[in-house]
Amino acid sequence: MLLLVALVWGASYGLAKTAVLFYPVLGFLAVRFCITSALLQPAWRGLTRHRRVAVLKAGVPLGLILLSIFVSETYGLSLTRASNAAFLISMCVVFTPFVEWIVLGFRPSIAGFVAAGVSLVGAWLLTSGATLSLNGGDALILAAAVLRAMMVTFTNKLTRGRDIPAFPLTGVQTGVVGLGCVILGIAVLPGGLPELPHAPLFWSSTGFLVVFCTLFAFFAQNYALRRTSPTRVSLLMGMEPVFGALFAVYWLHETLSARAWLGGVLIMSASVWAALRRSSSMPEIKRMVQKNKRTVPSSLTDTGLGDR
């Protein structure tokens, strides 16, 4: 199941790049996330008023971060190659310890700095190889990677120790993204959002992203994390950028030089290594909690998985 999630998430870059050929970025995101939020509305049934308020208090700010992520990522994807995006977005795993340092006060280990350095070398090889001159799309993807690291950290901060069910929370987050894109589209685009496209390829791409890259992926992650170790999850999900690059070559007929492939492998390796080190720290963190009786962010053991 986790390999399937990595596969469909890898395919998401090429499919999103295809969808925005038929409809503006903000309109595409509005359609995708409004549909996703609507499909998750049944999850609200049976929730008490207190739990609904708790979900909204966490879901709205997290939804605003998610809105920033997808606007940056999808605009960036429209301006760069899908294969570049697949590798660069995986740097969120490396960025997460540094965001935790700023937000939660936990300084990264020396290994975290090494992983960040390896990732930067990989980005240099992937995007230019001569001078580090990221194009606008690459820069937006890297911004989205930083925002994903913020998402992991603030999700932990806002939900830790609170009775907040996952599916209603995802429904609020995706609703905020969908509504935010509608408002931005009306305010920013000349003439507002255009009429919905009739192209079958747009709707098939969007439908795939809604059903497989959000609903199925969310279920599969939760199912797997209850039945296997975070280390195994990290290893399997580390295949996502590889699938993304291969799908871009197959679907969009992109080409990657040997230097670019080397850069992508360095980024992916650093991300998987960072995730594995965080997973392996679980026993030590548990002992520290028991010894010091203090709360330690669960994102320290997070595998870097985000809601695509």
TrEMBL record:
Read off the InterPro entries from this record: Diverse_Substrate_Transporter, EamA_dom, EmrE-like
Membrane topology per the entry is: Multi-pass membrane protein
- The segment(s) forming the EamA domain are 1-127, 137-272
Q: Which GO terms describe its cellular component?
A: plasma membrane
The primary site where this protein sits is membrane
Instruction: Write down what this protein is called.
Output: EamA family transporter
Task: Please verify whether the record's keywords include Transmembrane helix.
Answer: yes
The UniProt keywords, alphabetically, are: Cell membrane, Membrane, Transmembrane, Transmembrane helix
Q: Which cell locations does it reside in?
A: Cell membrane
Q: Which residues form the signal peptide?
A: none
TM annotation in the entry: 26-47, 54-72, 84-103, 110-127, 139-155, 167-189, 201-221, 233-252, 258-276
Give a yes or no for keyword Transmembrane in this entry.
yes
